[in-house]
Specification:
single chain, about 350 residues, alpha/beta, Rossmann fold, 2 domains, five-stranded parallel sheet, elongated
Length: about 350
C-alpha cells in the first residue's frame, strides 16, 4: 500500500454491482478510476467481475459474501452507500484484509423526516381520513379520532444519530416528552441529554410511551428484540414505528397484536423479508402503514450517499484515510496496509 499522500500507480478499478447516481459516477471517472458496471446485481453476474477490481461501491441489491470476496484478487475497499453494513460479511472482509466503509451521517435528516411522516400519519389517522372522505363519509370528522402529539411521550429505542435527532425535533418542535433506551451509549453521551431525555429500561419505555420509534442496527443481539413480551407492555392506544431494520421486530407477534387491536397501530419501513411476500398478512391490516424501505431514498439523499461512498472508495485507492465511516479499522494493522495512514 502506498505511503501517506501517495497516489496508486497501478490500476484503480471500481466495481458497481448496481448503477449509482450520475454525480457519483462522474466523481469516480474524474478521479482516474475505471468503472466496471455489472448488468445485474445477482451473485452469478457479479462473481466473474470480482477479479481485477480494487474497490466496490455497494448498494443494497446484493450481499457481499465470503464466497464473492474470495474470487477477488486485488480488492482493497468495499464502500457502502448507507450507514448499515448488514449486506457485507464484515468478518470475512476483515480476514481478507479488505477495508469496509459506510456513510454514517448522510441520511440522518432524511430518515428522521420519514419517521416523523409515519408518526404523524398514524397519530393523525391520515390513511383512515383519506379512505373515509373517498367513501363520502365526511362525517368522520365529528368522531375526533386524530390525536395531539403535544404533551405525549415519545419512546426512542437507540439514541444514535437518527434516534437523537428525532427526539430533539419531537421535543423542541412538537412539545413531546422523551424517554430513551440505549445500553450502548456512554455515560458521557447520556449526560449530553440531561434535562430533556429520561433514560430507562425497555419495560418502562414500552409501558409509558405513546409513540415508540426503533433506531437500532440488526445483529444477533437485536434479532426479534421487540417481541410479544415488549408489545404486551404497550398501551392499547400507543403506536410503534420502525425505520431501522425489519429483523429487530418479531413480525408474527406484531401482526397478532395489530389484528387483536391490542395496540393502536404501527408504521413500518423495513421488514424481515424484503420485498414483502405476496400474501404477507401485514398488507391486510388497516391499522398499519407500510413503506418499501424508502426512508433514505429521496432524490437528494441517494445522490448524497452515492457521492460520499464513491469518495471514500477513491480516497482509499489514493492512499488516503476516509474522514469517517471505517467499519473495520483493525484491517489497517495487517501487513498489506503497511504505509497507509492509520489515524
Amino acid at each position: 500500500m502506498p505511503r501517506k499522500g501517495a497516489v496508486l500507480t497501478r490500476s484503480k478499478r471500481i466495481l458497481l454491482p448496481q448503477p449509482i447516481e450520475a454525480e457519483a459516477m462522474e466523481l469516480i471517472k474524474k478521479s482516474g478510476c475505471e468503472v466496471i458496471l455489472c448488468p445485474d446485481p445477482k451473485p452469478e453476474a457479479v462473481l466473474p467481475l470480482m477479479k481485477g477490481v480494487q474497490g466496490i461501491v455497494l448498494r443494497t441489491g446484493i450481499r457481499m459474501t465470503r464466497e464473492l470476496m474470495s474470487h477477488a484478487d486485488d480488492l482493497w475497499v468495499i464502500s457502502r452507500t448507507g450507514a448499515g453494513v448488514d449486506n457485507v460479511d464484515v468478518a470475512a472482509a476483515t480476514e481478507m484484509g479488505i477495508l469496509v466503509t459506510c456513510v454514517p451521517g448522510a441520511n440522518t435528516r432524511t430518515v428522521v423526516e420519514h419517521t416523523l411522516a409515519l408518526i404523524l400519519a398514524l397519530v393523525k389517522q391520515i390513511p383512515l381520513m383519506d379512505r373515509e372522505v373517498r367513501r363520502d363519509n365526511f362525517g368522520i370528522r365529528f368522531k375526533n379520532i386524530p390525536r395531539d402529539l403535544n404533551g405525549k411521550m415519545l419512546g426512542v429505542v437507540g439514541l444514535g444519530r437518527i434516534g437523537s435527532e428525532l427526539a430533539r425535533i419531537c421535543h423542541q418542535c412538537l412539545g413531546m416528552y422523551i424517554m430513551a433506551h440505549d445500553p450502548y451509549l456512554s455515560s458521557e453521551a447520556k449526560a449530553s441529554f440531561k434535562g430533556w431525555v429520561e433514560f430507562c429500561d425497555m419495560e418502562r419505555l414500552f409501558r409509558e410511551s405513546d409513540v415508540i420509534s426503533i433506531h437500532i442496527p440488526f445483529s444477533s443481539a437485536t434479532e426479534k428484540l421487540i417481541g410479544g413480551q415488549q408489545l404486551s407492555w404497550m398501551k392499547p392506544d400507543a403506536f410503534l414505528v420502525n425505520t431501522s431494520r425489519g429483523g429487530v421486530i418479531d413480525e408474527e407477534a406484531l401482526i397478532q397484536f395489530l389484528r387483536e387491536k391490542r395496540i393502536a397501530g404501527a408504521g413500518l419501513d423495513v421488514f424481515t423479508q424484503e420485498p414483502l411476500e405476496k400474501e404477507s398478512p401485514l398488507k391486510g391490516l388497516d391499522n398499519m402503514i407500510l413503506t418499501p424501505h424508502t426512508a433514505a431514498l429521496t432524490r437528494e439523499c441517494v445522490t448524497r450517499l452515492a457521492v460520499e461512498a464513491a469518495r471514500s472508495a477513491i480516497d482509499v485507492l489514493d492512499g488516503k484515510r476516509p474522514s469517517e465511516g471505517i467499519v473495520n479499522p483493525e484491517v489497517l494493522t495487517q501487513p498489506r496496509w503497511q504505509g497507509f495512514p492509520s489515524t
